[in-house]
Amino acid sequence: MTGQNKYDDDDITHLRHCIQLATTAVEAGDEPFGSVLVDAAGRVVFEDRNRISGGDATRHPEFAIARWAAENLTPDERAAATVYTSGEHCPMCSAAHALVGLGRIVFASSGAQYAAWMAELGVAPGPVAGLSITQVAPGIPVAGPVPGLDDEVRRLHERAAQGSASR
C-alpha cells in the first residue's frame, strides 16, 4: 500500500465519481481512467476521463487536470486541491501534477495493481516505466489503493481489454 490510507466519506464519494468517469471512458472506446480535481472547500472544479483513443497518448485525465489547474488556479489554490483518480498517476501525470504544484492525490487502484492486471490479461507493457507517484514526485501526499474500489477498477480494465480484443 502507498501513503496514508485514511479515507473519509467525501474521499469515497469522489473516487466513485472517478470510477463512473472511467466507465464512460470504456464505453467510448478508451482505457478506464477518470479523475476529478477538488478544491479546498470540497467542490469539484474540473473532471475528465481518458481520451487516448484518438491517437494522442498524452490525453490522460490527470494531465488535463494539471493543465487546467495551471491556467485557472493560483499556486495556493493548486496546493490546497486534491486530485482523485480511478488509477494511480503514470510517471507523465505524476510529473505534471508536481510541476504545477497540486496537492494530495487519492487513487482507487495502484500502478502496481494495474501492471499485474495487464500482465494477467496478456497486455504488453507500455513504452514508459511504471513508476509510482512517490518515485516520480516524492513530496506529494498520496493515499491508495482503496480495498473494494480497486476491484471495481479491475473489472473495468478486464472489460476494456475484452473490448479491444474484439476490435
Helices and strands in order:
Layout: E1 2-3, H1 9-27, E2 34-38, E3 44-49, H2 61-72, H3 75-80, E4 82-87, H4 91-100, E5 105-109, H5 111-120, H6 133-136, E6 142-144, H7 149-165
Parallel strand pairs: 4-5, 5-6
Antiparallel strand pairs: 1-6, 2-3, 2-4
Helix pairs in contact: 1-7, 2-4, 5-7
Q: How would you summarize this macromolecular structure in one to three sentences?
A:
With 167 residues, the chain is of the alpha/beta class.
Structure description:
- With 167 residues, the protein is of the alpha/beta class.
- It has a single domain (2-165), classed as Cytidine Deaminase, domain 2, CATH 3.40.140.
- 47% of the residues lie in helices and 16% in strands.
- The protein contains 7 helices and 6 strands.
- It has helices at 9-27, 61-72, 75-80, 91-100, 111-120, 133-136, 149-165; strands spanning 2-3, 34-38, 44-49, 82-87, 105-109, 142-144.
- A 6-stranded mixed beta sheet has the order 1-6-5-4-2-3, sandwiched between helices.
- α1 (9-27) packs parallel to α7 (149-165).
- It is globular and about 45 Å long.
- The model has no long low-confidence stretch (mean pLDDT 94).
